[in-house]
Write a structure and sequence with these properties.
Layout: E1 2-8, H1 11-33, E2 36-40, H2 44-53, H3 56-59, E3 67-71, E4 73-75, H4 85-90, H5 114-127, E5 130-131, E6 137-138, E7 141-144, E8 169-174, E9 179-184, H6 186-189, E10 194-199, H7 205-213, E11 232-238
Parallel strand pairs: 1-11, 2-3, 2-7, 7-10, 10-11
Antiparallel strand pairs: 4-9, 5-6, 8-9
Helix pairs in contact: 1-2
């Protein structure tokens, strides 16, 4: 694994840098393998990125017709619910892309059986992506955020999905939220060719320092568990989130 930390001035700069890296990865993947497999994430920070990618100047920078789009996690809600990660990306980005509808693979958050939905989504991932050496789906790029509690995707501290080793997906009960979330697991995240974290805001500064510079405690800080076994790990963070870091690069 190679790790890179990039500190940028603000949220907009993070979004622009992420857009540039994502579109470059898309072109390279299509040139090398004929398709680009991407997993999106929820949260406020990626929304800036999605709005950029839906703009004309960015639409032409990536071969979206050859993209397969997935999600790192989803809430157990219908796609038109305001909490849906799919729904959050639909208007600013997905509705404007030339990606065929059958290449946009959303979780069925409205499914009555989250465990069955996790198994279905694992099958979708396997059908439309390469395989890593351990048999896991190997996506080209996974976008992730990080919460102030150190969670990423829907891998929350001290939850059962952190211990999944043999499946790419899980229906993860999160007691602290009183809810079940659908999520990719560490084996799937760590099989990716590239993982790109977007972290912004002063409220995450202390947690970011613990994740990047503190002792390994992935059960307490799940973001530490993301370590691609044969890929790259990049952290794009704004200056506000980086204030507690000792090691910074521009």
């Amino acid at each position: 694994m190679t790790r890179e930390l990039v500190v940028l001035p603000d949220v907009d700069a993070v979004a622009w840098e992420a857009a540039a890296r994502l579109t470059t990865a898309a072109r390279q993947a299509v040139q090398a393998r004929g398709r680009f497999t991407l997993a999106l994430s929820g949260g406020a920070t990626p929304l800036r990125l999605y709005s950029l990618l839906g703009m004309g100047e960015w639409l032409v920078r990536a071969p979206w017709e050859q993209a397969h789009i997935f999600w790192a996690d989803e809430r157990c809600v219908p796609p038109d619910h305001p909490d849906s990660n799919y729904g959050a990306a639909r208007a600013p980005m997905l509705a404007r892309l030339p990606t065929p509808a059958d290449q946009i693979h959303r979780w069925y958050g409205e499914a009555s059986d989250p465990q069955a939905e996790a198994r279905r989504y694992a099958d979708v991932l396997r059908r439309h992506s390469d395989r890593a050496a351990n048999g896991m789906p190997r996506l080209d790029l996974i976008l992730l955020g990080m919460g102030a509690d150190g969670h990423t995707a829907s891998l929350f501290p001290h939850t059962a999905a952190l211990r999944v080793t043999d499946a790419p997906t899980a229906a993860n009960h999160v007691p602290q939220l009183g809810a079940t979330r659908l999520t990719l697991t560490f084996p799937a995240l760590n099989a990716a060719r590239a993982v790109l974290f977007l972290v912004t805001g002063a409220e995450k500064a202390q947690t970011l320092a613990r994740v990047l510079e503190g002792p390994a405690q992935p059960d307490e800080l799940p973001a530490q568990g993301v370590r691609p076994s044969n890929g790259t790990l990049t952290w794009l963070v704004d200056a506000a989130a980086a204030t507690e870091l000792h090691a910074r690069c521009q």
